[in-house]
Fold these 2 entries.
Entry 1:
Amino acid sequence: MFGRNDAISVANYQDVTTTLEAIYGGLSPQLRLAARYVLDRPDDVALHTMRRLAALAGVHPTTMVRLARRMDYPGFNAFRDVFRERLSGARSRYSSRARALQQRRGQDGSLAEEVAAADLDNLRASFEAIGADRMQRCADILHGAERIYLIGLRGCFPVAFYLHYACSMFRDDVVLIDGAGGTLADEMRGVGSRDALIAISFSPYTRETVGVVNYAASHGARIIAITDSVLSPLASSAAEALIVRSDSPSFFQSITAAQSVAQALAALVVAGAGDEAIATLAERERQLDSFNAYWDDVPTRFGAQ
């Protein structure tokens, strides 16, 4: 069994997990509980205080200290730094991840199931971590905003577009920032302290999105960030940060949890918007009907009169 005199040298996250798995069988029951949680939920190690992490793992806070020292770290903070570095570090290049997928081709038929399982895990973990109270606080910010700006570029654009489309069905003051024709700066014109900005981005974070967040924050707008880490450059300026998981065995991050959070946020906003929102929705529906926007013909049996 490893001990303090064994001088385990753990330099990075992969070393931590490999060593923890190797010594797991020789740990005490309490240390096993702590180690199991660390292996299963590495993001939590980076994001939570030692006391909160211990509560989540079901152990005493001193158990976390003992686990860190068992791994030859001087204390818990040094141990946690490895997990923070993992979370804030650059993701693998998309091309490398795609190549790894190609190398799996023909080996098994489980990739689709793995993607689905990862998305289900992302949904569960994200909503558990965010909680209903934080979602409601975000809805309250949006209720009180004079204008709502939204930005989500590249892979996050579908989330921003959905929120813009859904909210614009019952509000006239929703602005989608997409930089069409090089007008990103123009779309931010007039943002101020009575406004809110919803920004969506995951690592590697889009530079333009970070710039818009910083600009809006400097002009007093309240920021709601939908992002993947409390260490995200979006989170540092946010009044509320909705941290979602985007893990996927695919070459690209998953936006499933972010999309679901956006859907829940739109539902909360309309639920608290009052009769005026219902009247606006009804007017929007009449306008769409006038354009015959939806295919609603009822198919008939072939040959029916």
Note: The longest strand covers residues 196-201.
Entry 2:
Amino acid sequence: MATDAVIVGPGRARPAGAALWAPALDRKAAVPVSRQLAAALRAAIAEGRLGAGARLPSTRALAGELGLARSTIVAVFEQLAAEGYIAAQPGSGYFVPVGFAAAGARGPDEPAVRVAARPGSGAGSRPLSHRGARLRELAIEPRGAPRPFQLGHADIDARLVATWKRLASHALSGRSRLNWDYGDPQGEPVLRQAIADYLAAARGVRCRPEQIVLTSGTQQGLSLAAQVLLDPGDAAWVEDPCYRAALDILRAAEARIVPVPVDEEGLDVGAAPKGAGTPRLVYTTPSRQYPLGMAMPLARRMALLAWAEAAGAWIIEDDYESEFQKPAQMLPSLQGLDRAGRVIYLGTFSKLVFPALRLGYAVLPEDLVRPFAAARHLADRQGSSLPQAIMTEFMLGGHFARHLKLMRQVYAERQQFLIDEAARRLGGALEMRPQGCGMYLTAGLPSGWSDRAVAAGLAVAGIGALALSALTLATPRPPALVLGTAGHSEAAIARAVERMAAVFERQPV
């Protein structure tokens, strides 16, 4: 039988049969033999075992050698030709295109091509963009199983799960409004209308549905804002201390970070460093400063808005969990007070419902909608229609309002439970006071202690506390820990406080 594959080199050729590249085909496997053969050919070409210019066996000869129907071989060759791996030459058969360059390999008679290495490239290093180099240095922590006081968790009870399952079943039935095709990059219009109505009633936000772009959460909203508003080297003012992910996003965008200290009323632009210049944007958490927990009073909000209008700066308002504050204590959003169109309002359902939902929104001034929508489109075209359809029904059916009311009570009780347990077991080593409500609180440590050392000791004991100094940029503050209470049961909190007592006993006085 013929084995007429030929490797063509500079000035000579030598034959090579299918045995050089075709594996034993498993006729009992779930994968059809045609797909097995196609995969083997692709790999042989990509790895250089069939170099540029190699002629493949005739379809008749290969069918006989492998014991397959000739029509199977023809179909495989035609598929690979359509993909560009091989090319047909009338009267001569199929060849690997001469211009085909194998990645990291070459044919046995193919001359080596040397490529000049860029600075910084080598066996263990490959050149990256400035942004890529920054991203490579970013520490991404695996989540794993929840540990007591670890941030970023939520309470998920059986009622929420049952409701979500029922709404998901309805969304997947023929009776729903689920869009099975590509949709609007801004998000499903019905959900955007529901969000606009909700925000107007609950947060005093003034917007039309057309001003909303759905995101996968506040982090994507801030990332889109950085793309649209910042050039490398532009100044971005941030609260000090600040949400760590926000800092990472702005640094990855090559912004020049300017830390602005917060006081008992939150961000104060008047306290910005001398000579800081005018920023392109200011990032703030006015409803509940993260991580210190204070709310920005009305007078400070109005002063911030007036300053932004005069300076021509954008304000990123991260309203990450104001829904868990008592309604009577909530002030209107900055966006609702803004008359100059300087505020970008970010919200998320991932914290309010459950983290895996990955659904949030940005409320934008009119002139930013189009570039934001385009940036969202280029990132991943659009969010999934299924979670949007379920969330729409969750809101319109009244489930969202009931869920928030329940969680507001649960989180307030959980916070108070931690305060009581710490007072009972830790002998005043943690200074805690109720911080309204919410998913975490910040607790002061004795003067002279290192909060990073304490956090490291607690981590060894299986406790996920965050050192306040890890979120601080330039303004020294007394040592403290940021402790998440959401998603951790009272029993888990009680056991964790016992372990904390043992760690605290080993701290130097």
Note: The domain at 6-95 is CATH 1.10.10.10 (Arc Repressor Mutant, subunit A).
